[in-house]
Design a protein that fits this description.
The chain is an alpha+beta fold. The protein contains 29 helices and 17 strands. The longest helix is centred in the middle third of the chain and has 22 residues. The two termini are 32 Å apart.
Length: 667
Amino acid sequence: MCGVTGIFHFDRPESVSADLLHRMNNTIFHRGPDGDGTYVSRDGKVGLGHRRLSIIDLSEGGAQPMSNREETIWVSFNGEIYNHASLRMELERRGCRFRSHHSDTEVLVQGYQAWGMRGLLERLDGMYVFAVYDETAKRILIARDRVGVKPIYFTKRAGLFAFASEIKALLAHPNVPATVGQVALYHYLTYLTTPAPLTLFDGIYKLPAGHFMMIEANGTFAAERYWGAVPGQSLNAHTVSEKSTADQDQYYQQAVMDQLEASVEKRMMSDAPYGAFLSGGIDSSVNVALMDRFTDGPVNTFTVGFKDHQHLNELGHASHVANHFKTNHNEILVDERDMVGYLDDLVHHQDEPLADWVCIPLHFVSKLAHDNGVKVVQVGEGSDEQFCGYNSYMKYLELNERYFYPFKKYFSGGLQNLTVAAAAGLAKCYPKFEIYADAVSRASQNREPFWSGAVAFWESQKTSLLPNYSPKEPYGWQDVTRAGLLPVTYLAPDSFNVARDFLVNFDNAYPGQDQLTRMIHNEFRLRLPELLLMRVDKITMASSLEARVPFLDHALVELTMDIPEAAKLRGGSAKGLLKKAVAGVIPDEIIHREKMGFAAPMAQWLRGDFGKQAETQLLGSKLLQAYGFNRDYLTSLFQDHQRKRVDRSLLIWTLFNLATWHARWCE
């Protein structure tokens, strides 16, 4: 894994500075401590930078930025191409001559030259962000992998176009200011992250998953979506439908297992030591079980637990799996003091807040792996989304079927209004009913119950939090909208617009899909790439550790998007299909144990000393004064939580992350 930087002076007289590229590179040293490289074009208008973490081809032959023999095509690349060997052979049959022994970067160089960007992307199997400078065409092209495992950020201002793997590298440029993106802030409060292409920094954007963009010589740019998590890319639906229900289930189970096995095997491609994070749940246990099939020695496994809240630990389950597969197992225990001591680094490495407290244990287990000499780990993200592993998904499905559609169908306008008013009154007296009252309100407005698998503030709550909020349009939004990246509906202070755009476009293109498939598609547009995968990227890379995600292999995703809700939830069991598919692969007691989830005891910590610290910092934040946050409402959140009237930990953590981010980057 590596880090990418780039500068393009499309309308500036001075040449790109190699020293500035080095400074940008140095801000992301952690992404690539094994090497640093820069390239400045012959006309001085384009510069590419690179930080290297050597995983494939440890020799100098894999150094970047890398060019073709004629030095007319240059590439800076972050990621891994799992099928680079087969692509190399295909290119060699076309007459391409390679200079490196087995560099996947050179496959990108030669592949772009042979097939063009679209032809290259349709062939790639991997996780990646890369930039191509085509000197002949005077064009820069930037691509992000299908599901968004790797990030890329960009900005355009005053004759300059710049891009980087992390925002802090862009902020190292003297012409890129750190100011608040007000529209993004509003959406962050709902989704715990910012929806692409927005970021919390005004005028800095991120390329969405499954997209590539082209920047022309005059600085104009356009983007294209080349992949999506949609049905119809894998199974022959007609052939499957002819089978009996039992035969269908068996077919799906075997297909899932075959894809998982292939996915794990290809992700063990490495010239550096590797391992796996192990919680003792189904997903991480399957990773370990399949890795064990493809290695001669023991798998290195890593687990984190809590000293102060041992009832939340999964150490025993992880140890059971480790013993079963005879892994080289490592554990670390952390507590509230460790968490507080890490907060400054957390804010620094996230760049923009990710209001997911999983980042805390993830940091400590990543550091544990790094300290044990491991450079690559396999992680379990993406399984719960595809196989309906969250209890919240089951509740949303029930809410949709039993309440949302009947409410719309049978309640008249007047009766709807009366019901909404009654629900709102109940919520004022009993805060625990607040979410249900909001759901009733959304139904009355024909707003779907499911926006995302993780929501902090619903619109009704944001009305109390930000009573007079009128966000300023983001800098450069017209260019980003013209490029096809930013729907104008995002600019309004209404976060439902984000989810609605995804669902409306999906329904128009794929009518008649079941509710679970619609929900999963939504997750692949926002929560997975911009929250879950960004926490993996930011936190593991901070420890110079590459994380690979077998459950998000695009072939597996294409398969699961073609499996209907009924087959995934046969018998009414969350994750039922996956549990049957992996029977016999991992111990039965792991398959059937109650799901705990990889988390942190934030609710408990916020009722102790850290809660007092968080309240002091939040209420004293300059952010509150600048944007009109309601102090009384904020105080009530802490009181509700500390008095155990209702769990407000997610809301508080979302705001605390925002305030500490603002203090670190914008004050």
